[in-house]
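Lab notebook page, bench 4
Experiment: in silico fold of construct C2
Operator: M.H.
Input chain length: 157 residues
Purpose: comparison with the prior construct
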Amino acid sequence: LFPLLLILLIIAIVIIAKQYTASNLELKKSINFVKAKGGEFALKVSVILKAKKHVDNITLIDRLPPLVTLYEKFGVEKPARIDTKLRRLEWSFASLEAGETRTASYIIYSKIGIMGKFSLPPSTAVFEKNGKMHETESNRAFFVAEPRSAKDFQNEF
């Protein structure tokens, strides 16, 4: 019974590895802290799209978490649509060649200071490959806000 279970486990690992390497578009989400003039809590969010193979009609969808506001200025790639009601940003790209990367970035801020772990939902990309629609998700991005000490407050004033 043990050798049979071992063989099934190896087959399952091979199938999962093949599916992972067969993805045509890879998304990676990252967060960086930004120092804001007004003392607000601000983060720069970057989503990197990397095509492993040629893909067409890419739509990148990202959702904003509650309690944050979107800064009006963007990086090089500007969103095609901003839905403030649903708190969604959408970028559209005609195509990406194999090995090509694009970066979509934006800044969010909040008047309320964040303590502890701040999490952003994963981004979603919908794209076309050989006439079929595919979907892929990015990683969840986290930011750990450390509490400020009394010494930091004294240095400000």
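Observations: The chain is about 15% helix and 50% strand. The CA atoms of residues 59 and 107 lie 20 Å apart.
Next step: discuss at group meeting.
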